[in-house]
Amino acid sequence: MRSSSPVSLLDVELRPGKPPLLRAEIAGDAAEWAARAREGLRAVVAQHGSVLLRGLGLGDAAEAGAVIRRLTTELMSDKESFAPRRIYFDRLYSSSAWPANQPMCMHHELSYTLEFPGLMLFACLGAPTTGGATGVADSRAVLDALPAELVRRFEREGWLLTRNYNDEIGLSYADAFGTADRASVERYCLANAIAFQWQPDGSLRTRQRRSAVVRHPFTGRRCWFNQIAFLNEWTIEPEVREYLIECYGPDALPFNTCYGNGDPIGPDVIELLNKVYEANTAREPWEVGDLLLVDNIRTAHSREAFEGDREVLVAMADPVRLADCAPSVGVA
Predict the structure, then answer these.
(1) Which residues, given as ranges, of the chain have pLDDT below 50?
(2) Pick the CATH number of 9-99+115-125+287-317 from 3.20.20.10, 3.40.190.10, 3.60.130.10, 3.40.50.720
């Protein structure tokens, strides 16, 4: 018997190199349709890891937000962010401010935090002229394609994220942690297994070790879940990296990743990770009104370079805190 939901697994269009697609047939209010479609859409995301919903006709942030709230259990606030976002409404954000001519590598949102979104939602309010697609990649396929020895090392050691917060490059600690009060920042760090050090100039340096592979909370499948490649110095555009190192030194980059024991990750490893991501990427050009739902643990996402006016509303939902995502040993 067909579900009372207006969508089902049978409605999904599966196309090579494209994310799963569902065409909405709406008669009336989009938010009301979303409420009825919630069960079916959840089943599609559970089955395929992501789904692009086309035909909702979302015209503005208020309409997109109403639909998103009908599809989610709990929206999350952005925290420990690495790039600024504009706030549309409470816990509804713009995509991260990132140069349009530079792609954003595949990553899992907030995978360096101990509590992170289980579901990501992206609503297209303005489509770029060229490029700008939000790609998706199955983290299970990525894990299977990586060399076993490399995976074993990351499973054994985890990965280490180092961040430098100052008022000149990247975000200040006040922007990232939502407060300029040092004591509050220190309490947050201590509660979230983040080692911190205040610098003589008042800036902040942090280090946090996280697991690189986790088990999905519902399926139990091992997933490659991290931001090792995206937040590594070798993914930064070469001329930008050279400029930052010249100005601030190799240890003062706004962010960098290492093996869990602190050893640097070579450019060959980052190149390999990005090649495996690309081989497993599915992408579809945005159309105004589209809504993309992504299982944040099973599926990584990226953003292509683009031209034109691109406006994508982002929501982080359904928080998850996994036991195997906590660091197995303390950070130094």
Answers:
(1) 1-2, 328-332
(2) 3.60.130.10
